[in-house]
Backbone:
């Protein structure tokens, strides 16, 4: 008599590209003898926020690393392309699976897709279960005293901090995974078409190691070299003062519970010193997701409705946007940031704030245009963090920098890049300038520029806007908004 087929679960990987602390995987292994790991490339299901160019590059390498980890554990990652539901149904049919497990996502499009998939598979008689791998606190678990979502970070974090002690310890990675039938077909990774056809990605490859092992290395290095001084060094773009875990966290190659546990092991106290500062930044990630969940229009529309009709610039807008994108505004710290972004797919947080302030205030271009450029060029492009970051910078967010507080990029550069090392690295045409002029080359005497071989207006642009005048124009535009409110 033929033996009955093994009890089978499908494990649907999405943005949880790891084996450790992966509750969907752990539960699937506990409840079934056979687990079929699958990744389905279905960018249209995330429309209009399909992964951008840099994110696709990351995904290609992150999936390759995951496939290797799964192979090392004795199984095989099935790669597929196309609408998720038919792919999952085909797998159910081919394997006789009775369960499907995945870890939750919280963007409007992915939540809608997951609801449809759940209903359809349940109608087919498949048990569907979703789990939390991506957040310390899921968006619906914390509300204000009057039952509203939090709109202001400080009270949100005050509520979260005491609960950090209750966050479950991370789950271990399974030592071995059950074998996947050889009859199940999988696409080769190249068939997903994630890498750029014109190869602009060398800088990304030189900077990052996508995958869970790369995430673990970044975390260990940060704990050894960065965490203690994080409070002081996190604002300095010229040094590696932050963890650079953001793309790994976005793709779920490491989860926040793993980060929390490692920080606790290293420091004990999660609320003081460098650890306290660092956990607070992780808190911004939680807060942003909470905002996106409760305000799903956040990527497109200002959370503060008085900004809906903001008088953005019309004349000359395209040329200014292009100068900003290419790192050719003539404002050194801004150009350094935009070039770092283009070359590495990442930009320091302080500089993200400065380039966003220049775009939305001095250039008076809509924050959505900046958010779209970041979306395409950041390896950590994340709908919640990016939308929240841009709305914060533009002054239209829930808990935002007030519009009238306009960063002066020269003063900011002098404060956070005092020796000018960051500008020298990314704008080498200015490298010969002395410290006192590196953030304002237009103030240098012609004789000095001549002597140092620097030609402003030829090798490096003259500023595309006058900082003082454009600041005044931005404030005048804001007055109109205030009057309308
Ligand atoms: C205009 C703008 C756009 C941004 N777009 C994104 C984005 O698309 N994706 C993204 O992950 N972050 C975004 N950020 C937030 C922040 O700049 C990055 O998370 C941070 O620079 C990542 O570097 P890190 O990993 O070294 O951070 P660390 O300082 O080491 O912080 C640890 C982690 O906390 C989280 N975090 C830190 N700061 C923030 C923050 N301000 N908001 C939300 N989460 C935070 C990140 O997950 C980060 O990896 C944006 C900020 C601004 C101002």
Residues:
């Amino acid at each position: 008599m033929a033996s009955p087929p093994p009890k089978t679960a499908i494990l649907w990987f999405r943005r949880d590209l790891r084996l450790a602390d992966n509750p969907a995987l752990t539960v699937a292994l506990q409840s079934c003898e056979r687990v079929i790991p699958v990744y389905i490339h279905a960018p249209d299901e995330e429309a209009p926020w399909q992964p951008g160019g840099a994110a696709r590059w990351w995904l290609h390498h992150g999936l390759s690393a995951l496939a290797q980890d799964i192979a090392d554990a004795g199984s095989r990652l099935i790669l597929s392309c196309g609408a998720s539901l038919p792919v999952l149904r085909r797998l159910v049919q081919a394997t006789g699976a009775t369960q499907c497990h995945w870890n939750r996502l919280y963007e409007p499009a992915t939540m809608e897709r997951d609801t449809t998939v759940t209903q359809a598979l349940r109608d087919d008689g498949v048990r569907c279960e979703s789990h939390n791998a991506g957040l310390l606190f899921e968006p619906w678990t914390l509300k204000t005293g009057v039952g509203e979502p939090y709109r202001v970070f400080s009270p949100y974090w005050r509520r979260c901090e005491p609960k950090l002690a209750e966050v479950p310890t991370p789950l271990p990675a399974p030592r071995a995974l059950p074998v996947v039938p050889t009859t199940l077909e999988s696409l080769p990774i190249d068939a997903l078409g994630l890498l750029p056809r014109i190869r602009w990605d060398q800088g990304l490859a030189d900077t990052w190691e996508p995958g869970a092992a790369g995430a673990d290395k970044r975390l260990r290095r940060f704990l050894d070299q960065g965490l203690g001084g994080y409070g002081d060094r996190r604002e300095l773009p010229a040094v590696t003062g932050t963890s650079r875990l953001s793309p790994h966290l976005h793709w779920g190659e490491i989860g926040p519970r793993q980060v929390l546990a490692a920080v606790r092991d290293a420091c004990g106290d999660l609320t003081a010193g460098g650890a306290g500062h660092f956990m607070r930044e992780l808190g911004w990630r939680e807060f942003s997701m909470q905002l996106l969940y409760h305000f799903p229009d956040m990527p497109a529309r200002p959370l503060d409705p008085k900004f809906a009709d903001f008088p953005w610039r019309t004349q000359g807008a395209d040329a200014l946007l292009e100068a900003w994108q290419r790192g050719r505004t003539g404002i050194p710290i801004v150009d350094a940031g935009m070039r770092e972004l283009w070359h590495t797919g990442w930009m320091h947080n302080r500089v993200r704030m400065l380039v966003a302030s220049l775009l939305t205030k001095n250039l008076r271009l809509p924050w959505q245009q900046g958010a779209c450029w970041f979306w395409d060029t950041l390896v950590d492009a994340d709908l919640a963090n990016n939308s929240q970051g841009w709305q914060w910078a533009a002054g239209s967010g829930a808990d935002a920098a007030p519009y009238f507080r306009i960063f002066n990029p020269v003063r900011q550069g002098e404060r956070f890049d005092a020796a000018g090392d960051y500008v020298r690295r990314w704008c080498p045409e200015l490298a010969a300038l002395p410290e006192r002029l590196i953030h304002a080359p237009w103030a240098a005497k012609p004789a000095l520029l001549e002597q140092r071989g620097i030609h402003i207006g030829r090798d490096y642009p003259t500023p595309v806007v006058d900082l003082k005048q454009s600041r005044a124009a931005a404030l005048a535009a804001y007055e109109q908004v205030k009057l309308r409110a």
Q: What stands out?
A: The mean pLDDT is 96.
